[in-house]
Every structure is written in structure tokens, then in C-alpha cells.
Fold this sequence. Notes:
Helix content is 34%, strand content 29%. α3 crosses α4, α3 packs parallel to α5 and α4 packs across α5. It is α/β, with parallel strands linked by helices. It starts with a strand and ends with a strand. β1 and β2 form a beta hairpin. The relative contact order is 0.16. The protein is built from nine helices and twelve strands. The chain has one domain: P-loop containing nucleotide triphosphate hydrolases (Rossmann fold), CATH 3.40.50.300.
Amino acid sequence: xxxxADALQLAYPASAxxxxxxxxxGVDFQLDLGRFQALAGPxxxxxxxxxxxxxxxxxxxxxxVLLDGEPLDSRSMAERARIIxxxxxxxxxxxxxxxxxxxxxxxxxxxxxxxxESAPSASALAAIDRALDLVDAxxxxxxQLHELSxxxxxxxxxxxVLAQEPRFLLLDEPAAMLDxxxxxxxxxxLKRLAQEQGLGVLCVSHDWNLASTFADHLTILHDAGVHxxxxxxxxxxxxxxxxxxxxxxxxxxxxGHPPVLLPQ
Length: 264
């Protein structure tokens, strides 16, 4: 199974009454099961837009998104939710959910059962605990979502997506607001989910060093298209990075890993 974008074209209006500004232009992209891939690029390069298109939340102007060779929009929203788990960059809860009920939403998607049904079964409660344990948030289970810090809430929301047990996991800046230890733990988990459970994991990250350390494959977007695509070791080079950042960066060698990218 694969999730693929073919010749994706998508534009937004620059402002009222003005011509649309292309965000993605003829973009090809493929996410395979069993791989941890990362999207990187300068601000406004179209990373979040591509991810939302792959999740079926943006209708392209032209081109198409395919799931296992079939148009994604030919599948119901319920079917997509069971196959594709998506966590956007920002989530603002409008209801006072407990942490347990937030993760239960993901379990209900996996079970194909309605949210407003009887109390969760023993298997549902076990699934909630498994998902929270994966993101080191089991101790938050009885807390209210709105009471949590930004980093704690981010981990709980990720647990809710993991509780869906999707085949593809699309995460937009999942490490935002996490401290260093939880960043490393999260990216280690994502790599393990790809390698050991065969998920196709795609992560948007502005932290080039985090992405290049853990991801199997890196795709860099720039000027509405794919600037470069390959292994982090191949892409963390002056040849690839100078067109993006000019002379505003430096690369420091790091034995056994791609070099560290730092501002100049």
C-alpha cells in the first residue's frame, strides 16, 4: 500500500481580488509503508499544504492523491480515518475533554463505533492506556485536556491519532513544544513504528537536525516544488542547502550522522 501525490497543483489567493499564488506546482510525492519520511523546507514552502492534501483535507486544483492506486476522494471519510492518521500543526480544543476521552475518540475510529455510545469496554480502556504509554503520557490519563501544558497536550493528541491504529501517520510539527528528551523519544518512537509495525510515517519538521538524525528519507520543498529528495546524508550538503539559505548557515561534521545545521 502507498499514499501518493501525482503532479499536485494547489494555489491560494494572495489577497482579495488578486491572482492565486501557487503553493504546490506539479509536485510528485510518495509515502510507502515501513518508512519514516520527513518534509523540510523554508517557511511557506508548502509542507503543511502537501500534508493536508495527502490527508484528503485540501482539494488540489489539478493532479491527484492516490491511496493504493485509487483516488483518495473515492473513499469515505470513515475509511480514510481508519487508514490515515493526521495531526495538524495546531489543535485548539473547543470542549473540555478529559485526556482519556480525547484518546477514546481515536479508539472509536478504529473500532468503527459511535462516540456517544455506552461506557468504553475493557478492550477500549486497554487501547487508551497503550496509546498514552507510547507517548509517555499514561500519568495524564485522568487530567483535563485544557489543563495541560502545550507539550503535554501535544503528546495526548498524538496518542489519540495512534489509537486509530492507522496504516499511514501524517504529523505536522509533532515535536513543537516538546522538551529535548521528549523530542528524542517521539522521533525514536516514529522510527520504531515504521520499522517494526510497518507504518508509513511522514513528519513535517522545521528542526533539520532532528529530522536528519531519525528519518530514513528527506524531501525538501522550495518555490512550490520538490527541491531535493533522498537520504539525509545526501541532502545535508552545501549543494542542496545554499540555494535555500544563502550564507546564513554552517554545517558541523557529526561522526556517524549527517552534519549539524546551525545558523551562521
